[in-house]
Amino acid sequence: MKFLVIVDVQNCFITGGSFARNIITNKKNFETPNTSFLTYAENLQKSIKQMEQICKLMDTNDSFIFTRDLHPRLHFSLEVTSGNKTIAPDYSGVFPKHCRDKNRLCERANITNKNVFDDSKYSTITDYVEKFSSYIPESISSALIARIPDKKIIGTNLSFLYYAMPLPYYNVIKSLEEKVDFIGFNKNNKTSQTGVPKFTNKKIVIPEPMEINNSVTTNSKLKNKKAIELTKGQYCNYESYSAFNYHWVFKQNNGEGKTSVTKELLPLDIEYSTGLFEYILDQYFSKPSGPNNRTIDDTIEITACGLAGDICVIDTVIQGLLTWNLIYLPLLKDQSTPEQQKSLPKVVFNYSFAGTLFTGLTGIPLNPSLDSEITINLTMDQFIARLNTVTSPLKTSDLPYINFNILDYDGKNIGSISYNGFKFVYKKNNK
Predict the structure, then answer these.
(1) Would you state the pLDDT for residue 285?
(2) Number of other CB atoms surrounding residue 359 within 10 Å
(3) Which residues are 418's β-sheet partners?
(4) 204 in helix, strand or coil?
(5) Which of 156, 174, 283, 355 gives 54 a disulfide partner, CB atoms 3.0 to 4.6 angstroms apart?
(6) The dihedral of CA 153, 156, 160, 161: what is its sign?
(7) Does an H or E element contain 404, and which?
């Protein structure tokens, strides 16, 4: 079975999103974007290209998981601001405010103003297209205006650019966003979250995925496949750059009138799961059985792409490898008879350059050729160096499990990456 994990391709993270402090959802910021229109337009073109690449990846996978970052207000990792005004200057967050869920709230020390959700005035697609019509391809702008002219651009929603894709893919996204349930909080759950929740009390509920049937699309490349959304980031002092598990904890440091936040790596534990592996395994074991009590397809192939390639995408691959090898595989073995162990899957991870953009590279995707060169003049060595700079730390005991494939823009396996001596190492596939 082939699973495509599309990480955080949502409005907050695309060009102009709130993570870049340039909130396209607020009309007043149309007049003073932080970047020039030319740069803005160029980066927007890269986001459009990313959408097209994701559509091609959907053609070759069986099940799609669209993840979305979703933080309560006053999440421990975020700056405390209202508009452009810092309301708690002595409180140091790790990230600018982004991807906030106005229906939930965290309690943070030394902060009395809880009314810090100022994203109530959203622009519509029509507003956006009219403002940037000179920089958007006509085919994209006409599709957006024809399909969703009054749709509000909300940072926590999947990227509005999906709605400009060819009709079969547009129908999948439209139908998916109309569903209520997803892995994580229910969309209709309006309960405010206060204090620090305990994961030991958390029950993972895996809803049924959306079946892509004739009511969604008759496209042969998509029909009979499945799609689901997953949210991460809802817990006040925990953070997940990975789609598989929460792996950071944020702690307040109070002293001399100032409050700062530091982060520490969480232990690898099933209690910190986002529910993604539970979903994947549920789908796998619900497949029909073949001869000798083995599944018809005894390999789970997980391909990750999305935003950002050097943060959440790479951490999704690495944390996925660790959670499988150190949590779920041992757990399944312990609960299986020797005969049942024959049906346990082999799990393979792929990191896809197609459908992936990187931070710090002005929105430009990496595009490796078969000789390991990259079209924006980055060598594979430079790419590896970037991963070594930003990826979550690993323990010595983790190293044997870090091994994943690199897929180029055509979906071809061009090599593999392992972790050796506390550094990523690339091995070219010479086949």
Answers:
(1) 83
(2) 17
(3) 403, 425
(4) coil
(5) 355
(6) positive
(7) strand 403-407
Kindly report the backbone phi and psi dihedral angles of residue 143, in degrees, each rounded to the nearest multiple of 5, phi listed first: -65, -40
Cα R_g (the chain), whole angstroms: 21
5, two tokens: 């994990």
The enclosing H or E element of 388 equals helix 380-390
- Round to whole Å and give the CA distance between 72 and 194: 9
Percent of the chain at pLDDT > 90 equals 32
Cβ neighbours of 60 (radius 10 Å): 11
Q: Report the pLDDT value the prediction gives residue 206, as an integer from 0 to 100.
A: 77
Measure the CA–CA gap between 107 and 193, rounded to whole angstroms: 9
Q: Report the residue count for the chain.
A: 431
Distance, in Å, from the CA atom of 359 to the CA atom of 309, rounded to the nearest integer, reads 7
> Which of 94, 105, 82, 19 has the alpha carbon at shortest distance from 260?
94
Cβ-contact 305, 6 below 8 angstroms: yes
> Do residues 404 and 351 touch, judged by C-beta distance below 8 A?
yes
Task: Kindly give, in sequence order, each residue whose CB lies less than 8 Å from that of residue 374, ignoring residues fewer than 6 positions away.
Answer: 366, 367, 368, 380, 382, 383
Contacts of 276 (CB under 8 A, 6+ apart): 5, 65, 67, 183, 230, 243, 244, 320
Residue pointed to by tokens 């009395």:
112
What residues in the chain have per-residue pLDDT under 70?
A: 15-42, 80-94, 109-122, 185-205, 254-260, 288-297, 359-379, 390-391, 431
Residues 6+ apart with CB under 8 A from 89: none
Residue reference for tokens 């689901």: 228
Instruction: Report the C-alpha gap between 281 and 161 in whole angstroms.
Output: 31
Model pLDDT, residue 229: 93
User: Can you give the pLDDT at residue 78?
Assistant: 76
Domain boundaries of the chain, sorted by first residue: 2-19+48-71+168-428
The pLDDT of residue 320:
97
CA distances from 186 to 91, 174, 182, 190 (A): 31, 18, 6, 9
Amino acid identity, position 205: V
